[in-house]
Hints:
By secondary structure, this protein is mostly beta strands. The chain has one helix at residues 11-14; strands at residues 2-4, 7-8, 18-21, 29-31, 36-38, 51-58, 66-73, 79-83, 89-94, 96-97, 100-101, 105-108, 114-117, 122-123, 127-128, 134-141, 148-158.
Amino acid sequence: MSRITPEPLTPAAFAPFGDVLEVTGAPDKLINAGMCGRFHDRARLDFADGRAGLSLFHAEPRQLPYTFDLVERHPDGSQAFVPMALDPFLVIVAPDQNGRPGMPRAFVTTPGQAINFHRGTWHGVLTPLHAPGLFAVVDRIGPGANLEEFTYTAAFTVDAPAA
Length: 163
């Protein structure tokens, strides 16, 4: 079994896999009589024949160390996970290597971060680290299969981040 040390989730480290959604810096503009900052167009939503849909997911919290062997991808659309609580969650991704996932990487979000996987990105299942595990998910709604799963021959364990 291979071990993975999770990394902090930063826009630069996560760029090959998707977008980090967070409020940083000054807002792009102020709206609502100056009472609300708009941080504009922070994710590249990308859908083949279909439309964007917003669903709610309720996932069971997991603990670190966390062992997995399954990853998945969505060839017809991007997928954004937006936590509905200010709790960190685990994000597992893998580069594509000729249609199969390569060596996985793991990230732990900070409170207030969300992510958007680019279309076709291999990723782990939704993995909250705390209850309630509620997420808003923006992804493709449309005809046809938009899910490919891959099971590694040997499991990986994501350790707790170094303190």
